[in-house]
Specification:
Elements lengths: L3 H10 L6 H8 L6 H16 L2 E11 L28 H13 L4 E6 L6 H17 L4 E5 L7 H8 L3 E3 L9 H4 L5 H13 L3 E3 L2 E3 L5 H14 L3 E6 L16 H14 L4 E4 L3 H5 L3 H4 L5 E3 L11 H10 L3 E2 L4 H16 L43
Parallel strand pairs: 1-2, 1-9, 1-10, 2-3, 3-4, 4-5, 6-7, 7-8, 8-9
Helix pairs in contact: 1-3, 2-9, 2-10, 3-10, 4-5, 5-6, 9-10, 13-14
Enzyme class: transferase
EC number: 2.8.1.6
Pathway: Cofactor biosynthesis; biotin biosynthesis; biotin from 7,8-diaminononanoate: step 2/2
Amino acid sequence: MTTAFDLLADRILSGGAATTDDALAVLRTADAELMSVVAAAGRLRREHFGNTVKVNYLVNLKSGLCPENCNYCSQALGSQAPVLKYSWLSKDETLAQAGAGLRGGATRVCMVSSGRGPSERDIDKVVEMTSALKDAHEGVEVCACLGLLKGGQAERLKAAGVDAYNHNINTAESNHDNIVQTHTYEDRVDTIGKAKDAGLSPCSGLIAGLGETDEQLVEALFALRELDADSIPVNFLMPFDGTPYENTWELSPTRCVKILAMARFVCPDKEIRIAGGREMHLRTLQATALHVANSIFLGDYLTSEGQDALADLEMLRDNGFVILGMDQGAFDELIEEHRAKVAGRAVGGCGSACGSSCSDACGGHDEPDSPVIRRRGAGTDVAANA
């Protein structure tokens, strides 16, 4: 039976575009019709990306200590979340962390630092790190996420070999002042413009679950379409204890899939990345969501743990996906290497998102449903989850 969503996919595949009414209809679909939405949006995903998944890896260069008051963020001014706090990683530390992700299957390294925006000395550090990373790993993509850019900084990053710049709009312009007051929506759009003008691939997305309305979610996606973001990370709020959004639970797994499907209909040929909160909010629908999205982060996030990297890779293979740039044989070998690594670790662990990589340095875990604070990888002496 042909559904309204099949007809929408037909229209888009024929060169048309989704309207705001189309996007709202996707968000407001009954849960019983979820798979009809996924099937139709999946046609667009396969048209542009086949069965490939782009795997990205985060390196948190500088954690916490941020002067901005983004209410959702565990690193923000005023946050009492017990996250790791450290100043800049050294070049060698950055190479070690990035190398773990690349060996784990990632093709893009996202280098992130907390703060309002980089100083010229900070840009010097990232330039040096990028040069070293490109020398050590042929073909690696580098995305920088350093906050609000000043004139000339994007050009310096581009000249150093940085491929993309991430700066999320996070929410609709009409909702922006409700979630942060120390910078404006226009500040964020200006930085995306600076990155585009310098020839960097613009990466910009949103956070769902911030109290926004359906209309504001649609507003944000259409703004991203207008900005022509090449990659769109879709985050789902992680309500860290000690932040203004603690105990904020607005999302269900089906709601999250509909948001991702809406993003695919609105931006059919763009990289739609399932970002922070994937495991917590999608839960058993993670694989279903990948039939409309085409990109994930491997392993852990900036200040929270993700599911075990082996579980990420097995989920991809079990559902018929391959890593972008890797053939099936190499993908199978990668999974076997991960299995051997896991088998070589001490039996035990905490049984949470740490999987088998947990150690005494983990520090224990929060109550169920709370974000698990990252205690491994960058800024620690514990091996990364990659």
